[in-house]
Each structure stands twice: as structure tokens, then as C-alpha cells.
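Appendix C. Worked example: Immunity protein 72 domain-containing protein
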Amino acid sequence: MPFPQLPDSQDRQRLFHLLKKLSSLTAWQRIFHFYQQWADMAEASVRDAVNQGWDKLTGLPERDHALILKGLAHCEEGVNRLRQGNKLVFRYDANGEFVMARRPLTYFHEFVHRVQTGDSDIDLAHTPRWDAFCAMTSMLDSAWSECAALILESQYLDQPAPLVFNQTWRDKLNKLPFPDSLSPVPEPLRNTVVASGKALPCSGIWEPVELPMRKCAPSLFSRSAEAPDGPLPPAGCMNYLHGGSDAPTIEVFDADDEIEEVATQWRLIWKDDRYLDGSIPDEESAYTFP
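Step 2, the predicted output written as C-alpha cells:
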């Protein structure tokens, strides 16, 4: 029988804080600033190559800068919409500005890797600022991956939830910076519960839970279709999920320590309604990043 490894109370507080931070305007503004610096570096490389008469020789021609600018525009639009409280920018659909912003970064991250490993060849002698461009590509990719892995919707909509708690995650949490005092995980008075495969009514932080069994007949028990109010026991790890998308399955470990995908019931523990009133929560001023 599969069973989840559950976070303890401190782990839950840390995970709740982390998911709020990684989905915050502050986090994605930081990424946008890195993206701007990356685009500026590409522009400087193109300008230097043109000034030297190397525009036909450089490994970073003007069309590459134009591609990066398109990604930058999507990233800026994503940040602007997020600032207005629009969480659809995290989805993998026509609203997914950050998904579209990621495409040039993916291309150039792979391109840099191919050049560095010798799988692709460019004229480095006539490619100004190549090392600086590589460094900025790596910096942006690291900042992006830190947030995107747990926040952006996967292109594969039947994927299980990305965050699966285990000892590796506990060790990672122990190494991450957290405030001395963490906010408690909310305990809703009235529960909103959605089964895997059903549409989520809002974006926010959801947690798998066990619903109580109720007696439907003298010898027949079935899972309740409606969740009772009050606390419910966790059945997995909380995740940031997207309103309008279907609730995902989760991955758990079976008795042989093998991962198994199972359906679950997701309970809303925090609705993400940040920025709708034009303000930024005070706690974001204390967010720190590696």
C-alpha cells in the first residue's frame, strides 16, 4: 500500500513560506532584472561585434539579441500582470507569459552548454563578451529554475504535483534561509476540497488531505463527497496549484520505497489573492534568495 512521507509542523511552515516566496512578485521581479541584464549583455556583444566589423563572424549575431528581447518582453508583461494580481501568468496556456519568456533562455542555456562541451563551434575570437554572456545566462537560469520548478505549470497537464516531500527535501529546507519567526500555516474554518482531475477554483497553496469515511448503509462505507469543516489530516505535501487547471495526482512511496502515482483530495489552505488591491505584503521585504 503506498504511503506519503509527511512533513512535520516545522517543515510545513517552511514549505508554506517557500511556496509563497517563490510565487511572489518580489521573486519574479528579481528574475526580470536578471533577464534585463542578460539582454543588455547580448546587446553589448552585438554592438561591439558590429563596431569591430565582426557582425558576420560573431557567435551572437543580432538575431540572437532580437530573440532575447522577445523573451524579455514576455517576462516584463508577466511581471506587470502579476503586479495586478493576475496569477494566470503562471499557467501553461495563452496566458502563460513566463512560459513564453522561458523559451529563449532554454535555447541559449543549451547553446552555451554545447559550445562549452565542444558539441557546437563558434568563432570565440570574434564573439565579444562571450564569457560574460555565459555567466549571465547561468545566473538567470539558476534564478529562474529556483522559482519555476515549483510554481510554473507543466506543459504536461497529466503530470503529478511537482513537490513530493522526502528526506532530500527536509535536508534542502535545513540549508535554505528562513526568518527566525515563521507564520503559522493557515487552518481554514471552512474547507474547500477538490479531487484530482477536477478543476481548481483558484490559485493558491493546496494540501492533500484524508477525508473521513461516513456510513452510507449498515455495512457500506464510502468516502464523503463533501469535506467537513475544521482540520483534516494531511495525506501528502502542499503545492502551489493553478486556478482553472485540474487538480493533479501526487506521487507517494509504496512499501518497497518505489514511487507510485495516486489520486488525492486537495484542500485549499491559502488562496493567493495578493496584489489585487495594489499593495505588496510587508513580508516580501524580508524575502532572501541564494
